[in-house]
Amino acid sequence: MRLGTPYIDALQSVLGYGGDTDTNACIVGGLVGARIGITGIPPNMIDAVLRCDTKKGRPRPAWLSTQDALELTQGLLNEEVH
Predict the structure, then answer these.
(1) How many domains in the chain?
(2) What is the pLDDT of residues 23-62, one digit of tens each?
(3) Residue 28: inside a domain, yes or no?
């Protein structure tokens, strides 16, 4: 983060180390994303998360849906979510 590595480069770097890649990418993506903001994340990556259908494949509970992610995030930023 202190090097100012672009979002996609940071993810590719951590994935290249192997190991528990999904967890590592989640941590790095969250940290770098928090530092650079939504404008620093490639739009296609944001769309992939927001369009994720949690009912396909191995269905997930409704509370894991990303449909309300932007609204919930904005509410947290505005301290409106309780």
Answers:
(1) 2
(2) 999 999 999 999 999 899 999 999 998 888 888 888 888 8
(3) yes
* 24: containing domain: 1-42
Confidence of residue 15 (pLDDT cuts 50, 70, 90): very high
72 contact partners, CB below 8 Å, separation of at least 6: 81
**In this structure, are 38 and 9 located in the same domain?**
yes
Largest CA distance in the chain: 39
- In whole angstroms, what is the distance from residue 59 CA to residue 56 CA? 6
Q: Could you tell me if 74 and 68 are in contact, meaning their C-beta atoms sit under 8 angstroms apart?
A: no
Phi-psi region for residue 49, left (φ > 0), alpha (ψ -120 to 50) or beta?
alpha
The residue to which tokens 């530092």 are assigned: 35
Judge whether 47 lies within some domain.
no
